[in-house]
Design goal:
Blueprint: E1 5-9, E2 17-25, E3 30-35, E4 39-45, H1 46-54, E5 60-61, H2 67-74
Length: 75
């Protein structure tokens, strides 16, 4: 929610690479990613995405602000 995920994918026989997940459409079955090797706002079939992601043991990076930063912003 408001924080994109960086994930590692291994598609077909290509080397693993990183993409930024920017959206998910569960009804239509696709994942929207920014892929520096291909292009922005790329629609990937959800099944293919999950296969490529699981090939990297579901490697994911979620960056969060430091806790003390969150406290200051709330006050």
């Amino acid at each position: 929610k408001g924080r994109p995920l960086i994930v590692c994918l291994r598609e077909n026989s290509r080397p693993p690479h990183y993409v930024v997940v920017t959206g998910l459409d569960g009804q239509q079955g696709f994942v929207l990613v920014n892929d520096p090797a291909r292009r922005k706002l790329l629609k990937l079939d959800r099944t293919g995405f999950e296969e490529g992601w699981s090939a990297t043991q579901n490697w994911t990076l979620l960056a969060l602000p430091r806790q003390d930063t969150l406290v200051r912003q709330e006050n």
